[in-house]
Write a structure and sequence with these properties.
single chain, 111 residues, alpha+beta, 4 strands, 35% helix
């Protein structure tokens, strides 16, 4: 009877180790929440483009590269694409796109 009890206890220990190892692996491979919140990214973008309104907000988890908040802001006839680093809060891109009045998306304003 002594041998049977030892195998049961040892078997339970192995199962606990495997389960714990799986949880530890899952914790290291799952995406962590960004340090910079969506609200903070909007505030940073508004400081970059004062007087604009946010028309689009997306979180881009880019794998091995730094995660970013992608924002599109509109100010008058200009659209600004702003990317904010989700870890540091730094603006990593600020590009201005003027609206195309003839809506051809060809960059000219000819009818």
């Amino acid at each position: 009877m002594q041998i049977t009890k030892k195998f049961i206890v040892a078997g339970a220990g192995v199962v606990a180790l495997i389960g714990g190892g799986g949880a530890a692996y899952a914790a290291t491979t799952s995406a962590a929440a960004p340090k910079v919140t969506a609200e903070q990214a909007i505030e940073i973008a508004h400081k970059t483009v004062p007087g604009a309104w946010v028309s689009e907000l997306d979180f881009d988890s880019r794998g091995t590269r730094a995660d970013v908040w992608e924002l599109e802001l509109t100010k008058g006839s200009e659209r600004h694409e702003v990317k904010v680093d989700a870890a540091s809060g730094k603006v990593v891109k600020n590009q201005i796109d003027k609206d195309d009045r003839d809506d051809d998306n060809d960059g000219d304003d000819d009818d």
